[in-house]
Amino acid sequence: MNASESPNPPYFDVLFDRIASGDHEAVTAFGRHVHWGLWESNAADGTAADYLQAAERMCQRICDAAKIQPPARIADVGCGFGGTIASLNERYQSLAMTGINIDSRQLQRAEELVVPAAGNQIQWICADAASLPLDDAGFDAVLAVECIFHFDRPRFFAEASRVLRPGGVLSLSDFVPQPRMAAFMDGGAGPMSEAIQWTYGDVDMSCSLEGYEQLAAEHGMRLLVCDDVTEQTLPTYDFLCEGARRWHDQKHAELFLQATGWLQKASRKKMIRYLILSFEKLASRAG
Fold it and tell me: What is the CATH number of domain 3-281?
């Protein structure tokens, strides 16, 4: 099936197959979090367990940018296997958390894996990020951990602004192009477009930091945190590419290596930066 015919990112289809086959590395590295890792130094050891720790570190950094103060209501949009909610569930009490995803398979796994701790509440909702079935001004934080490139950004920002209370925070991570790259990325990734489509599905990496600030202003928010962690994510690429070289499906492995290698090169040259961004909803804006 062509990636464009699937409602879900192709890498999740591959991951579900690997988990179902009992692939220990896939379960360890990606059974909780499905996103890039963050290392305090480049001293990654290349193991799945090390990658899991780095992914948890990334998750916590993004959540910290949301300035969460219990008791709080939190919406995690594009929640994957529930790793971010699991992390918050372990770190805090008195949270009411809602995990939202368009893929019911991911929600089913999340519900099986994450059990609310005492004092916390968790619900899972199958919905589109551009049309959140959530109350107006009902949330203290909205999270989008490494998934916003799959969303319609303007519609998602409008929805995030709508559901956040004044003073609430939207926190996200994204691959953000430098201004000189943004126009190029707006038309796709040139010769890498097919490999990226087959590997990561429909992605939009054309929103620069200035574009994000404009989106925020248009929806009654202001930039609160801009954390460039590009250098700390670089060991991710070696881990992902080394794993792909062991895949049985050589065609898919080749496309994955092309797409991921291109992103690695762009990141090393700082043409694309991995940014953690958070935005505060201004009190003067009506819900």
Answer: 3.40.50.150
